[in-house]
Amino acid sequence: MSDDDRTLQTTRWLPHAPAAVYAAFEDPAALARWWGPEGFRNTFEVFEFRPGGLWRFVMHGPDGQDYANESRFDALEPAARVSIRHVCAPHFTLEVRLQAEDGGTRVHWAQTFDDAATARAVAAIAGPGNEQNLDRLGRVLAG
Questions:
Q1: Quick one: CA dihedral 72, 67, 123, 137, positive or negative?
Q2: pLDDT tens string 106-116
Q3: Long-range contacts, stretch 45-54, CB < 8 angstroms, 24+ apart
Q4: Cα separation of 60 and 131, whole Å?
Q5: Which residues touch 96 (CB under 8 Å, ≥6 apart)?
Q6: How do residues 49-76 score in pLDDT, each as one tens digit?
Q7: Sequence-distant (≥ 6) Cβ neighbours of residue 26 within 8 angstroms
Q8: 84-138 pLDDT, tens digit each
Q9: Whole-angstrom Cα distance, residue 112 to residue 138?
Q10: Are residues 112 and 106 in contact, defined by beta-carbon separation less than 8 angstroms?
Q11: Strands 41-47 and 81-86, how do they pair?
Q12: By CB atoms within 10 Å of each CB, which of 3, 76, 80, 96 scores lowest?
């Protein structure tokens, strides 16, 4: 958790160009393969990858539970930035920045919740889940 008490942050270096990492967000088939913690799979109902676009999907957990999600793409900068607003509970904004570094990309992942109490309540699950998300992204990019 960051100093502001509402933000879970992680960084990861991936041996892929920023454009390739961005493409893994932009392509719904690729995104569905890596989005979420280990063991989850996704069914996308609406995927409008543009600023203001809707992203409605269901995450299917390894326990058989379904988790409905609805988000909005707030800002998109090819090969540089993806900002997603989660508009259902728990409310947060995910800011992903891509920085070219040493022949690959440094991914800066910051999930900022609307309040510190929610961030604290989900940190034990969301923190490791964010790391698993990036593990899965790396595997999808590696092919």
A1: negative
A2: 999 999 999 99
A3: 48/73, 49/25, 49/73, 49/76, 50/76, 51/75, 51/76
A4: 18
A5: 25, 81, 82, 83, 84, 107, 108, 109, 110
A6: 999 999 999 999 999 999 999 999 999 9
A7: 49
A8: 999 999 999 999 999 999 999 999 999 999 999 999 999 999 999 999 999 999 9
A9: 23
A10: no
A11: unpaired
A12: 3
What tokens were used for 74? 């707030």
What is d(CA 70, CA 65) in angstroms, rounded to the nearest whole number?
A: 17
List the beta bridge partners of residue 24. none
User: What is the C-alpha separation between 101 and 33, in angstroms, rounded?
Assistant: 25
- Please give the Cα distance from 89 to 81 (Å, whole number): 23
